[in-house]
User: Which sequence fits this backbone?
């Protein structure tokens, strides 16, 4: 029996008697609005913005509203067990922190603060290649906490191999390869503010600390930052990879490999054929293709196609415990959550991230119990109705 996450609400009420209140809202759907009051327009819209008109981001949320939980009574759901194992990683609940880069633009604590918060609640932290700090710094902050590494795939194989070796040596167990962001989409909010943190040197903690990448430069990044920045940007943007490059990753990573950005059943089947261990059904939170299918709408068909052959994770649009329950009921093994905890970071650093995560877990725990589900396995398509 795992921790009763729902007990967090009692903790909040009791602390309130002493005049102590949460660092930000317990309602993740309100965090974007309050974060906008804290952050400058450039950083805020870099996190909150979407591709094009924002249609895909809206579709992600609308898709959750089309599915409704159907509560069942007298199921003995007093005690719940949310624990599971995701690609060999034991977790107290089926929730991971999605890879989010450039966290230094929202809070000085940046990635280490988020990694410490994740470790404190036992959830896996998925570190982005676009981290503000080095692989080793994030690993140190994570301590004994579970950690995965997300790869933006460099075109230089030696640099890629070096980054993977560093991640493995630092205790990252699972590799998440993002496929849908080989170049930046048309993002009007960022363009209107002419805001791209990478060209200012933000989010380059991984390459600028990599010995192989540094060895390619005539001058060190400290001596000639603009050249180093442009060299890295050209290495990870502008080139769409192909399926025949996947064996390279297997050669240089002996743990589970997950492909993130899958939206079509045929791509899911190709992932199986390529020997991948998992996929993330994701549209990058609506940040890459405007007018694309909502991730939740893509999930059932992908589960039907490959759900018995690899582990399927879900990303894009998660805001509440009910959202998590719906994704699990439709076949996801676990979910990745991004923007809500980033807003928590903006509000209160490590404490803000921890609060958002604990709120989300409490919401999931209580939603499961009150809808009559004691275990994750109880969540099935029969738990839902479509409206």
Assistant:
């Amino acid at each position: 029996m795992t921790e009763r996450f729902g007990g967090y609400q009692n903790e909040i009420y009791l602390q309130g008697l002493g005049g102590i209140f949460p660092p930000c809202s317990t309602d993740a759907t309100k965090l974007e609005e309050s974060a906008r009051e804290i952050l400058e327009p450039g950083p805020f819209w870099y996190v909150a913005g979407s591709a094009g008109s924002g249609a895909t981001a809206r579709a992600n949320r609308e898709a959750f509203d089309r599915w409704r939980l159907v509560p069942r009574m007298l199921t003995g759901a007093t005690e719940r067990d949310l624990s599971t194992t995701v690609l060999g990683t034991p977790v107290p609940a089926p929730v991971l922190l999605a890879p989010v880069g450039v966290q230094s633009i929202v809070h000085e604590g940046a990635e280490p603060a988020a990694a410490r918060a994740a470790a404190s609640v036992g959830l896996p932290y998925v570190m982005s290649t676009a981290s503000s700090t080095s692989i080793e710094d994030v690993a140190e902050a994570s301590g004994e906490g579970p950690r995965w590494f997300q790869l933006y795939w460099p075109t230089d194989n030696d640099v890629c191999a070096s980054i993977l070796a560093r991640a493995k040596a630092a205790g990252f167990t699972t590799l998440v390869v993002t496929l849908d962001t080989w170049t930046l989409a048309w993002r009007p909010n960022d363009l209107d503010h002419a805001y791209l943190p990478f060209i200012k040197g933000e989010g380059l903690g991984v390459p600028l600390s990599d010995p192989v990448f540094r060895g390619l430069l005539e001058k060190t990044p400290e001596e000639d930052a603009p050249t180093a920045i442009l060299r890295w940007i050209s290495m990870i943007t502008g080139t769409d990879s192909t399926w025949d490059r996947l064996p390279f990753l297997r050669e240089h990573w002996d743990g589970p490999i997950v492909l993130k950005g899958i939206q079509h059943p045929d791509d899911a089947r190709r992932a199986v054929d390529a020997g991948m261990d998992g996929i993330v059904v994701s549209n990058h939170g609506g940040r890459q293709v405007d007018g694309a299918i909502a991730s939740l709408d893509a999930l059932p068909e992908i589960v039907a196609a490959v759900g018995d052959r690899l582990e399927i994770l879900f990303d894009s649009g998660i805001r509440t415990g009910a959202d998590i329950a719906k994704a699990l009921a439709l076949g996801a093994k676990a979910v990745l959550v991004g923007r809500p905890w980033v807003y928590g970071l903006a509000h209160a650093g490590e404490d803000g991230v921890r609060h958002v995560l604990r709120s989300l877990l409490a919401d999931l725990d209580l939603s499961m119990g009150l809808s009559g589900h004691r275990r994750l396995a109880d969540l099935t398509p029969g738990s839902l109705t479509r409206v």
The longest helix spans residues 339-370. The two ends are 34 Å apart (CA to CA). Residues 47 and 173 are 27 Å apart (CA to CA). The chain is about 40% helix and 10% strand.
